[in-house]
Design goal:
Layout (H helix, E strand, L loop, with lengths): L4 H65 L14 E4 L3 E5 L2 H22 L10 E6 L2 H8 L7 E4 L2 E5 L4 H18 L8 H14 L16 H6 L7 H20 L3 H14 L2 H8 L7 H10 L1
Parallel strand pairs: 2-3, 3-5
Antiparallel strand pairs: 1-2, 4-5
Helix pairs in contact: 1-7, 2-4, 4-5, 5-7, 8-9
Length: about 300
Amino acid sequence: MKTSPMGTNRIHWLMIIGVALVIYLCFFLMAISSFIDRKNEKIVRKNNEKLESLKGQIASLQRAKAYESVPSREFTPNIPNGFSKTYSVHFTIYSFNNQLLEELAPKMEKIYNAIIADTNLYNFNPPERFEIYIYKDVQMYKENTKRAEWSGGFVFDRKMYTFEGPHLDYILPHEATHLIFNDFMQGKATKISVWVNEGLAMYEENKNSNIKKYEFDKSKRMEMPEFLTLNLYTAPVKKVEIWYAQAESLITFMLEKRAKTNFYNFLATLRETENLDSALFLGYQSEFQTIYDLEKAWLKD
């Protein structure tokens, strides 16, 4: 049986239409698949950001709780036998883990150089190496320092004490900042500079670790009189957490929105005069008459 030319053409066009539909369907499915992949990537990225933020909040909460565990009289930590040690330019590091020692020597110098660059303390020369003691585990840390495990680490008498674990990622830059700050200030203005010391440590912790935090909500800030006088040892944990975040935010503004030479001059004058307003006035070339002027500029930013 012969097919008419008209029938042949109809079959031909139906085949073309069928192929076109198949191609269209393939592209449609590819587009849908691509859309789903992008959606999943956004979800994963958002979840990762939330996870990092949560890590930051946990770290801050641990820092806040650490103040609840500080003994009223400072306890000199015990140093058990068995530590190995290594040297870097500015640190002597003790640990039971030789591989960790190899990793930390260059890492601590990188952290040290970052802190010096951020604060413009290029003329600062510590009289001798700082010491870092890393206990084998949290149990050994608790037994030998009398600190609660959530403290993570602390500094005392130019020495840092901590223990092995993932928390070293943020503890090391935080406590290294305290070592440098305390040495530079030479024991001066300790009470009025607590927020500077802790805010700077939080800034370096955030910058030199994998923790990423959300920007501080300034609407939740503490009023300046309370902020400057808050007793971190007795205040509720939530208030201490806000205090830390606010201190970090203020230091971030001072370091990133103004010249780093101003910050260095501020610290040097604070050490010399032990007066916060004078240090701000001279350090920031008369821009800030008092801490309240700094606060106003910070709030406008």
